[in-house]
Inverse folding.
DNA sequence: CTGTTAGCGCCTTCAT
DNA sequence: ATGAAGGCGCTAACAG
C-alpha cells in the first residue's frame, strides 16, 4: 500500500496537521519536529496524492492567456485552441481567462501583464514582443512567483519559465534545405516574403534560411525581402510585382502570413510555377498544397502549443517536472502526401 | 458553484446513495426515482468530478502492454517509453504491466491476449500482427468489454478501439514525393530496402511509395525489393551487393529496420552518394543525417504513441471522449536541420 | 508550536 | 428500493 499522511504522522509520532505543515512548508513547526517528519517521509517513500490535495483545497488553476487580436488564420486557430481549453476547464480544474491585445504592441502587452501582476493567477501565457519593457515586466512577474510561458514567439534570455513554440532558426534552415533540394543544383533566383523584419520569428526564419542557402546552395540568389505585413492584399501585390519583374524566379519562401495573397498572385501569374515553401497549415495553404501551388508547408501545431503551455503552467505551479519530449513543439513538415 | 451529488440529491429529494446508484447505473432504483434523479442531473448541469470519484474508489487503471522482444532501436525505444510510463504510474493512477512476446508471431500474441482476457485489465495495448486468429481474439476481448488500442501496427476493420500509429501508406507516399523531388527529373534507378513483405506496415509503405513514383515520377525505376529482415548484417550485404551490381542507383528508400547496415554499406561503397530516405529516428539514422549519408528520416514518435495509448485507454475505460487532434500520430519528417 | 476536527466530492457497506 | 454513515488522502480552521 502506498503510504499516506496518516502513515507518516504515525511513524513520526506527530499529528496530521503537523505533517501537512511540513509537506506544504508552512511555518509553525520546530526544527526537530520538521526533521522527524521529513525523515519519515523519505523513509516511507511518501509521495503526495495531488488529486486528493487539490480536492481538499478545492483548487482550480487560474491561468491567463494574452493573445493578439490578429486576423490571420494561424492566430484565429490559436484562439480557437485556447477556447477549446476553456471548454475543458472544469474537467481539468483550470479557469482560463483570455486577454486580447493589439498585435505587435509592446505597450499593450506590458499593460496586460501589469494586470496579471495584480490579478496574481496561477500562471500566464503570452506571445512575446521582444522589447525591453516586456523583459522588465516579465522580471517583475518572476519576482512575484507567477509561472510564465511564452507562446509561439519567445523572449529569450528572460525570466519566462518555458517557451511553447518552435525554433525559428531551425525552421528557416529547414525551409532553406528543402528549397535547395527541390531546386536541385540549377542556378536560380528565390524570393522571400515576410511579414515584418521587426518581428523576431520572421527575422530568425530568414536568418536560418539565408544561412543554409549561403552555406550549401551558392547557385541560389535571394532577392531582397518583401515585407507584406502578413496582409494578403499587400502580399499579392508584392508577389505579383516581383514575378513580373523577375520572371525567372524559381522559388518563393513565405515565412510569414498573408499566404492567401501569395497563392492568388502565383495562380494569376503567367510564369512557370516556382517552388513554394510556406508556413502554417491553414485552409488556404492546405488547399494550395493539394493543388500543387505550394510544395511544402512548415507548421507549428497550435493545439499542441496551447495544451503544452497549460501542462507546463500546471507543473510549474505545483513545482513538478514536465516530460520534456512531450513539450517540445515540432517543426512539422507537410507535403500533400502527409496532410493530417 | 459547480453542483455536487449533494445538490442533485436535495433537488431530487433522495439520498446520496440513490444518486450514486443512478450515476453509476447500478440496479436497485425504481424507474420513477431514477427519472427524478436524472432530471435533476440535467437540470443542474451536473458533471461528475472524476478525480474525486477515483479517490473514493481507490481506483488505479490497470493496463497491459504487449510488446515484441525485438532488438531494433525503434522497439527498444518504444520499450523505454513504456517503462517511462510505468515510472510515472503512481502519479497517473495507472498500473502498467508489460508482456514480452516473440516478434511477428501470431500464436504468441494470441496467447498473450488470452491471458489478458483472464486478467481483465482496464485496457490493453499491443502491436498487431495481422492474422485471423488475432482478429478472433480481439473480437472476444471486445465482447468482454476490454478497451483495446493497437500500437505502431494496426489491425484494420477489427474491434480495436483505437490505433496509435502512423498511416503507413501516407508515409510511403511522403517518401516517394521526397525521393522524386530530391532526384529532380533525372532518369534514375531506386532501390527499396524492406524488412519483410509479410508485415503490413512495410507492405503499405511500399505501396504508397510505388504509387507516387508511378503516378508522378515515371523517370524513376524501382528495383525489386530487398528484404533485409530488419537485420543490419543482412541489410548491409544486400545493399552492398546492389550497389555493386547497379552502380547507377541514385536513390534508396529504407522502409524498415536494419539501417545501421544500410549506412555502413553506403559509406563503404565506392559510388556517388545516393539519395537516402529511411524510417525512424535512432542513434544511427540521426548521425547519418548529420553526416549527409541519409537525406531524410520519416519518424513516428514512440513517446507520443505510448502516452497517447494510455490517454485513450483511460478515456475508453471511463467512457469519455478524447481530443482527436492530440491523439493523431504524425509522420514526422526530419532533415538534418530540424532534428530535435 | 502542535493537535483535533471537519470537510472536499464521491463511493460503499450496512441497515432499514 | 432507499437511506445513514463512514472513508479515500489531504487540507484548513480552530483550539490548546
Amino acid at each position: 500500500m502506498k503510504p499516506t499522511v496518516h502513515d507518516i504522522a504515525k511513524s513520526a509520532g506527530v499529528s496530521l496537521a503537523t505533517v501537512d505543515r511540513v509537506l506544504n512548508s508552512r511555518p509553525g513547526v520546530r526544527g526537530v519536529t520538521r526533521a522527524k517528519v521529513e525523515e519519515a517521509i523519505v523513509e516511507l517513500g511518501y509521495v503526495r496524492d495531488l488529486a486528493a490535495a487539490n480536492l481538499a483545497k478545492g483548487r482550480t488553476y487560474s491561468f491567463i492567456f494574452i493573445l493578439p487580436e490578429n486576423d490571420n488564420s494561424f492566430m484565429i486557430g490559436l484562439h480557437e485552441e485556447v477556447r477549446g481549453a476553456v471548454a475543458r476547464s472544469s474537467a481539468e480544474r483550470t479557469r482560463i481567462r483570455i486577454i486580447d491585445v493589439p498585435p505587435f504592441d509592446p505597450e499593450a502587452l506590458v499593460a496586460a501583464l501589469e494586470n496579471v501582476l495584480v490579478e496574481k493567477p496561477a500562471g500566464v501565457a503570452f506571445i512575446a514582443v521582444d522589447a525591453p519593457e516586456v523583459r522588465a515586466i516579465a522580471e517583475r512577474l518572476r519576482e512575484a512567483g507567477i509561472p510564465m510561458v511564452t507562446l509561439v514567439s519567445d523572449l529569450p534570455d528572460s525570466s519566462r519559465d518555458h517557451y511553447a513554440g518552435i525554433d525559428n532558426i531551425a525552421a528557416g534552415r529547414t525551409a532553406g534545405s528543402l528549397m535547395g533540394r527541390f531546386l536541385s543544383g540549377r542556378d536560380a533566383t528565390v524570393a522571400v516574403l515576410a511579414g515584418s523584419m521587426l518581428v523576431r520569428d520572421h527575422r530568425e526564419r530568414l536568418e536560418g534560411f539565408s544561412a543554409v542557402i549561403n552555406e550549401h546552395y551558392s547557385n541560389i540568389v535571394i532577392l531582397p525581402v518583401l515585407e507584406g505585413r502578413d496582409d494578403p492584399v499587400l502580399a499579392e501585390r508584392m508577389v505579383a510585382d516581383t514575378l513580373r519583374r523577375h520572371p525567372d524566379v524559381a522559388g518563393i519562401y513565405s515565412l510569414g502570413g498573408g499566404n492567401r495573397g501569395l497563392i492568388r498572385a502565383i495562380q494569376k501569374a503567367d510564369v512557370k510555377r516556382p517552388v513554394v515553401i510556406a508556413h502554417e497549415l491553414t485552409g488556404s495553404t492546405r488547399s494550395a498544397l493539394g493543388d500543387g501551388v505550394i510544395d511544402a508547408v512548415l507548421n507549428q501545431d497550435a493545439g499542441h502549443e496551447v495544451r503544452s503551455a497549460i501542462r507546463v503552467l500546471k507543473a510549474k505551479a505545483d513545482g513538478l517536472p514536465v516530460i520534456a519530449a512531450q513539450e517540445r513543439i515540432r517543426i512539422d513538415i507537410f507535403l500533400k502526401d502527409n496532410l493530417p
The longest helix of chain A spans residues 200-216. The CA atoms of residues 21 and 266 of chain A lie 67 Å apart.
